[in-house]
Amino acid sequence: MHFSYATTVRTVTTVALLACLPGIASCSSNSAKLEQNQLPTVQVSVGQYRVTAELANTEETRQTGLMNREYLPNNNGMLFVFARTETQCMWMKNTLIDLDVAFADEQGRILNVEQMKAGTTDIHCSQGNARLALEMNLNWFTERRLGQGDIIKMPAQ
């Protein structure tokens, strides 16, 4: 089969770029993990319990959430602060640990708690207009008898 010089150069360039993609994706993934581990934290209270929560308050941090994490320490979680108060939904794609999510309104009142299985694309939504969502280890809310009507208290800012 006959290839022109331009076709050969194009083919070699394409093969070289494809060979580099796994390394580039790895760098991107490591960068996302580094950023994720450097999120600011806030102290929140849920009922009588204190929680250290990483703050996901930008579009990017809310989209990434707890993806690719292998472990979440006890009484630690992630607090999602949404730009608008409306029905909010989450899924667990690329999330490695089972989680609970408590959706709450603007006053921090829990609307509902959903249990979410790692790695699934099942959609979990708030039962009403939510401004916040607090993700914790699976059964965290149940073990503490917390749920609908309980308050997530945050710092004033």
From TrEMBL:
<protein>
    <submittedName>
        <fullName>DUF192 domain-containing protein</fullName>
    </submittedName>
</protein>
<dbReference type="InterPro" id="IPR003795">
    <property type="entry name" value="DUF192"/>
</dbReference>
<keyword id="KW-0732">Signal</keyword>
<dbReference type="Pfam" id="PF02643">
    <property type="entry name" value="DUF192"/>
</dbReference>
<dbReference type="InterPro" id="IPR038695">
    <property type="entry name" value="Saro_0823-like_sf"/>
</dbReference>
<feature type="signal peptide">
    <location>
        <begin position="1"/>
        <end position="32"/>
    </location>
</feature>
